[in-house]
């Protein structure tokens, strides 16, 4: 759980520190974004082969190497003296951190019988969901109180403690020394994921398809995905088992996971600049204002952990989706003068909604999936969530930028001495419109109004996207969480063979 929380935190914890890192490392605005891009690309590429690595070398060995590598890379990131060093070290962070979340999920599912998995997935979900939510809060506090280097140093003591715990307690799992690696399948998906992440991250600064660089990334993404799908259909032993996708619950859950990743990280990425640039809050205040969302998530996780086996998980996910959609619709009505109480309530409702969706989603996804596919399934689910997060952030920034330009151009048409409505409703401003100070004041007002409406468009787009989850949720079958007796006792970290897969309740 420590490794999972650290890896999830590092997807957003560095965001609020980027302006400070830019000055310290003498980097341009375009260059400093590689601190985020390198981590995301490496994590996306290396998540895919986690299932094979665990089966070939054992879950304990991969977890230990990943934890130690992530901890050392975090320490190196904090000690970096120039842009090249921190980009390389963040790349290593992504490489070693990729296996932490999927392997921890697979191990926790293996450790407990199906009737206890609601509690287990609630605990695991707290770590994976609180990371992106609390990342800006913790990052803002550490940057404000100490320096940006501490957003990386904070991983070191927890990484050391987790490594020692794994070494002493965790027992190794079965290894298949004869397992062959599908280099073709890995090469195709690595090409697709790497090019996609680069396209999404660089697109906003390179004018999207008006840039040759982005067009090249798009072509490589399409080529990689096409070759991967053809290879998966035709290969005797493809990189990802084909039978895994015949499980309706797992396939539907993967699509919902994509949407959850997109909406969760996009909303987390939009709120800090909204509160800082429009609301006038400091970095620390922004972090504290985003904290209540985490309390809502914890409350939902605890509720699902206690009653998840008794209630229909589809109902729980529907309630959570409704909460997320409602909160995003409410956020679309916000202005910079939003009352603190309303901001607090909406944030808690949104966090509660994400928690109500995420924990039951992991229960349903793996309840009917055969045991031999769990590690691959967990890696694929985490990969889908990460890709959804990357696409969600890039699309939300694109909508924000385009909306702001369009709204500003539309409002500017009315900023004229010939507009009699302006003379009647804003007489003092109209009288000064011929002066530079009056023009600057009106220009600032137009900019603020355009930004408010652009953020509203983004929140409305995310609210509409979250509604897609409703039909997908009810395409799933309700699994049974009562009839899977354990066939043998397990020591911590040992994967016992699964018994018969419980028949889903009609």
Task: Kindly describe this structure.
This protein is mainly alpha-helical. It has two domains: 2-182 and 239-405 and 449-473, Growth Hormone, Chain: A (Up-down Bundle), CATH 1.20.1250.20; 184-238, no CATH class. It is 73% helix and 0% strand. It has 23 helices and no strands. α4 (34-47) packs antiparallel against α12 (183-203), α6 (59-79) packs antiparallel against α7 and α19 (374-412) runs antiparallel to α22. The two termini are 34 Å apart. The model is unreliable at 483-506 (pLDDT under 50).
Which features characterize this protein?
Growth Hormone, Chain: A, 23 helices, 2 domains, 506 residues, globular, 73% helix, disordered C terminus, single chain, mainly alpha
Describe the SSE topology.
Layout (H helix, E strand, L loop, with lengths): L1 H8 L8 H7 L4 H4 L1 H14 L2 H8 L1 H21 L3 H15 L2 H12 L5 H29 L4 H4 L1 H15 L13 H21 L8 H23 L13 H31 L4 H8 L1 H16 L5 H19 L8 H28 L6 H39 L7 H6 L1 H5 L4 H31 L2 H5 L33
Short structural description:
This protein is mostly helical and 506 residues long. It contains 23 helices and no strands.
Number of helices: 23
Oligomer: single chain
Count of individual beta strands? 0
Radius of gyration equals: 24 Å
Membrane topology: Multi-pass membrane protein
Subcellular location: Cell membrane
Organism: Rhizomicrobium electricum
Domain Major facilitator superfamily (MFS) profile: 1-481
